[in-house]
Amino acid sequence: MSASAQEISEKIVDQTVQNALKTFNVPGISVGIIHDGKVILAKGYGLASINTGEKVNSATNFGIASNSKAFTTTALALLVDQQKLDWDDKVKKYIPEFKMYNDYVTEEFTIRDLLTHRSGLGLGAGDLMVWPDGHDFVPEDIIRNIHYLKPVSGFRTKYDYDNLLYIIAGEIIERVSGQKWTEFIEQNFIIPLGMNRTGASWNTLSDKSNVIDPHVPIDGKLKVIDRYTNPIFDAAAGLYSNVDDLAKWVQFQLDLGKTQNGEQLVSEKQMKQLITPQTLQPNFTRPPYNTLFRAYGLGFQLQDMNGKLEVSHTGGLEGIVTQIIMYPQLNLGIIVLTNQQEGAAFMAVSNTIKDHYLGLPERDWVKEYGELIAKRTGEADVVTAEVWETVEKNKKRRLAYIDSLPGTYRDNWFGEVKITMDKGKLRFESVRSSQLKGDMFYYKGDTFAVKWDNAYLHADAFVFMKVEDGKVTGFSMEPISPLTDFSYDFQDLDFSKQD
């Protein structure tokens, strides 16, 4: 019998996960493996929370973040089956007020375009309307404001991952079905599949007794942080689930829409749409997987791995990252859920498992990723250290235009920011996003740096002043660290002074 025909031993998974917990400073991980219709492994490791000391088990709920996107696309597949809409219907048919950056794109934009990251907008464009939590934006704001976001490529020409268009897709589900997105998902999938401990959103999760806390390392020490709970993100990243329940969801996907009792909830034809390439992505073929193509389907990443189709997605919220992988030809599903935001942990675990089933030689992925992360972190630390050292060196320098700097500034889609000065100390505060507030320091040239009050954001930013006739007229921004999460899309902002 070949190595790939045997089930992976629990001991190998145990060892890999324990190494990953230690190497990447992750409190807890949950792993599920489904093969040939059977749950081979469903197990929790480590702690659900460093505050409570409760342990992770297979029923422990994690925020699955962007793995929620496949629930949205599967819901749309069901509505296509019910002949309530079509993938290629224009968005304006259901949301007449929908408007993109130009008239042609607005008129031609389809439901399929909402789901395939080919809008022409940049990576994470407009995510500051949903990220970090603590803002007051609602889906209507996204629909109203998205046309202010400037394209970085031609419509349907390039892959750039987005979240906002999935929120709009959720709005279509609500308008067509007459139900809230959470109700539709729970009624049509969570209940029929017997996912009894899953909630379509943190806010609809009925049993919160066995759930992780999100964790973020600050200066190498783990800290429990506030959970993301805003319902605006539900259709893109809202679900809370566990490996016991997600095993049922993965099997449903592998069985192309059929439940464990044989009921065809969604047609095979529409389920196959989800795993059909829609938008090509850049690909670099290299061992051990020798991937020949990469593409996005509908709610899933698609690529070939050592000659087999891999259907997958990852997800990330503050303090939580997750991954789901499926190999339809092998009838195999892998689920890895973590309660710390270092993605290398789930990659090391899932790669170890998939290598076994793909018949590839064993590799120490924990060691490899550990070295890679240490290198990347070290390089980013050099960048940020230089910035704050320069700030310290220039702290006594007084700019001629400093008195014109305080005031109210406005960006078309993000709204107002107030910059104030008290006893020579500058403060930056967003009016609509309460966590984006912090002290502002002179860096060099006409550039300042903002250090957010909340250290766990890991998203300190440059502020580039626009100065005309000796007065500040506006500013633009961008992240300082190259490791800043892409959802802090400061580069998409363009502020003008209002007073």
Report a brief summary of the structure.
The chain has 499 residues and is α+β, with helices and mostly antiparallel strands. It is built from 13 helices and 20 strands.
Specify the biggest β-sheet: 8 strands, antiparallel
The CATH topology label of the largest domain is Beta-lactamase
Q: Say which CATH homologous superfamily of the largest domain is assigned.
A: DD-peptidase/beta-lactamase superfamily
Q: Spans of 5+ residues with little confidence (pLDDT < 50)?
A: none
Tell me which CATH architecture of the largest domain applies here.
3-Layer(aba) Sandwich
Number of strands: 20
How would you write the strand order of the largest sheet?
2-1-12-11-10-9-8-7
Radius of gyration: 23 Å
Helix segment tally: 13
**Molecular shape:** globular
Average pLDDT reading:
95
CATH first level of the largest domain: which class?
A: Alpha Beta
**Which structural class do you get from the secondary structure elements?**
alpha+beta
Estimated helix fraction: 25-40%
Work out the strand percent: 15-25%
The termini sit apart by 75 Å
Could you characterize the architecture of this molecule?
By secondary structure, this protein is of the alpha+beta class. It folds into 2 domains: 3-375, DD-peptidase/beta-lactamase superfamily (Beta-lactamase), CATH 3.40.710.10; 394-497, Lipocalin (Beta Barrel). It has 13 helices and 20 strands. It has helices at 10-23, 69-81, 91-94, 103-108, 111-115, 139-145, 164-177, 181-190, 234-237, 243-254, 268-274, 344-357, 365-393; strands at residues 28-35, 38-46, 62-63, 215-218, 221-224, 240-241, 279-280, 294-296, 301-305, 308-317, 320-327, 332-338, 407-411, 415-422, 425-430, 437-444, 447-452, 461-468, 471-479, 494-497. The chain has an 8-stranded antiparallel beta sheet with strand order 2-1-12-11-10-9-8-7, sandwiched between helices. It has an 8-stranded antiparallel beta barrel with strand order 13-14-15-16-17-18-19-20. The chain has a two-stranded antiparallel sheet with strand order 3-6. A hairpin with a 6-residue loop joins strand 15 and strand 16. Helix 2 (69-81) runs parallel beside helix 7, helix 2 (69-81) packs antiparallel against helix 11 and helix 12 runs antiparallel to helix 13 (365-393). The protein starts with 9 loop residues before the first helix and ends with a strand. The model has no long low-confidence stretch (mean pLDDT 95).
